[in-house]
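Let us work through a complete example step by step.
Step 1: write down the sequence.
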Amino acid sequence: MASVSHKSAHIHITGIVQGVGFRPCVYNLAVKHQLTGWVCNTASGVEIEVSGSRQDLNTFIHDLQSAPPPLAQIDRFDAKWIKAVYFDDFTIIHSQDQPGDFIPVSPDIAICKDCRQELFDPKDRRYRYPFINCTNCGPRFTIIQDIPYDRPNTSMQSFRLCPNCKSEYEDPKNRRFHAQPIACPVCGPQVWFEVNGQRLAKRNKAVQMARNWLKAGKILAIKGLGGFHLSCDAANPQAVNNLRLRKQRTDKPFALMAFDLKAISQYCNLTDAASKLLQSPQAPIVLLPIKRYGIPIANNTAPHQKRLGFMLPYTPLHLLLLEPEQDYPRILVMTSANISEEPIAYRNDEARLRLNKLADGFLMHDRPIYMRTDDSVFAQLDLKPYPIRRARGFAPNPIRVVQNLPNILGAGPHLKNTFCLSRDHYAFLSHYIGDLENSETLQAYENAITHYEKLFRIKPKIIAYDMHPDYLATRYAKKRAEEEGIPLIPVQHHHAHIAACLADNKWESSNPVIGLSFDGTGYGTDGHIWGGEVLIAGYNDFNRRYHLAEVPMPGGDRAVMKPARMALSYLITSNIALEPDLPPIKSLTEMEIDVIKHQIQNHINTPLTSSMGRLFDAVAALLGIRQEVNYEAQAAIELEAIADPYEEDYYILDIDGHTIHTQALFEAIVIDMQNKVSINKISAKFHQSIIKMVLDICNIIRKETGIQHVALSGGVWQNLYLMSHIIPALENAQFIPLVHHQTPPNDSCVALGQVMVAAHQVNH
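Step 2: predict the structure and record it as tokens.
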């Protein structure tokens, strides 16, 4: 006769619940509470059927909800009582695929403490094995080919488990239970060192040879988790310079890797918050303030910077390369293995072909990478993580939004491209793709879209795209829409920025906000180049309430690469005499100056721009900081780096009608220069003038509309001097600032905004 106290429950859990040790957690909890039943992975999450007493079941459900595995992310937890079912024991049954269903996929995770301890334990069978991992760490997104997340659906499928690994893989009480990348020296991937296609060493000897070559000042291509890095000794100026010459990367800072926090602390100031982020499972690059009198490091690793981008070793191979030992490099440059603007190399044969002139040697392995992924980059804003590039460790984690979204593809922007696919309450913002400047990056973009659509079972019904007619992402969107008969929705660039910021802050209201969309380039509805925009915007639409006064860009894109041209444009349009001792005048030839004057006066190849980024460029050039740039926003970054942190004075930006005029600003800067005011003070006063202007405009709009929320989006808001001053200033004035937390403020967030705007246009 059935027991009255015997109950059964069915539980369905969605979120990041596969590849993170969820089933063994369920199994061990069920055994602990003397319950019977089963747990199973499906394409839509985890299904559990469990039986026992009501009290034990309630305790089981509470424990599972309150203490899931460390890497799990529960989005929905649905438990319901069902008709009593009797089982002999509790079992883990095989994964089941259901066409059309989907779940989020775990990103790649840095090596955990347990695996790190085993790596350096001579008694452990995986001692010094470069691919040690468990359920709590290791590759995920970069090796997965399809869902459910099982070994046959990963790039590990060709590595047959040895008896020891198989035993661990099948034991629910082992932390390697169903760890899909599980491996050991007997049955798993191997590492080797090669030069000119010839293998010179393998296994531990390969790692040691690589260390010796780095010590000798050589440049190596090192295969990591999501692709290859180019690496050298960061304390060797000649090695760093050689890397710059080969990679064609003149000034842009290199990422650095150190063995532990102690090593980083010798070069940079570390807060508890920064230390926590560096040691997090995502292990991003973190931009850290340079110590004024730190231990010497090659100046050319990050020229003209006030911060260094450091990360900790996130794979066992990195740990072995940086293991502290006398005379070996303590800090390594770890930069993406590519020539500037190309996608990161990630396949062995491709690396040999593309990197043979960049690297002296190759540290390679035979674990295939299915989806290339760059390193993520974060800054610290008010002791909180502030994303600059979202990739490894974070993608493909979805942005969970309040609204229910149709299946939309946001094609994304031209620079710092990401794309976005939406379904239900999920917006799957892709990993960082890069600038769509060449066929190689476009191919990587298209391949990634195909992979995401397959992985998350999303067939777009709508494509949202940037209004700029010449962007490769726009051309892709239009071509695909025509081929598949999919509706197209154009979304203005700066509107997308504000919509992304709203989604990042889980904004669900139909009410608009004040949107401060400040960046370098965005195609406006009038065909001009926007970028200094104050919008009244919601998801549905926007009103361009204020904008910087438009100025000509002499030579179009040439003015982006040569800020001296923008400085000249601002001086001419402000009716300021072109004195020969002004730095941008000195940097240009008489012929160049005459040509630029002629272009501006006769409107020849001088598109108009209201860009805040170009304003920063012009001021940097005027102060003599940077007349030409070799990477995006270089002039603005170096202008920020010299700003006097104690200066509180500001210049005036006149507001007339809908326009923010800059003539008085440039007149005052030139006077300060003539009076020998330091460029550090002038830089700070310029920054303060932007803050003062923002406050004045926000106050005007609030008086008109009552709006108190202010959304800040666009690449200019990567400027931490601006951000650290504008947020308290807005709060002190009783505004509520909305800033990016999950997505970068730069163009990498635009695809998310495109999806949100398109979804609301369809639904309304």
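Step 3: interpret the result. The chain has four domains: 6-96, 191-377, 398-492+746-763, 517-738.
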